[in-house]
Amino acid sequence: MNTPIESAVDSAAGTLLTHSATYCLALGYDREEFRLMARKAEDNGLPHMAEEYHQQADLAAGLHHAVSWRFCEDTELIRTHWEHLLAAVVRREAYELVEADRAKKHLADSPDDAAWGDIWQWEHKRADRNATNLAYLKTKLTAVRDAFRTPSA
Question: Whole-prediction pTM value?
Answer without folding.
Answer: 0.90
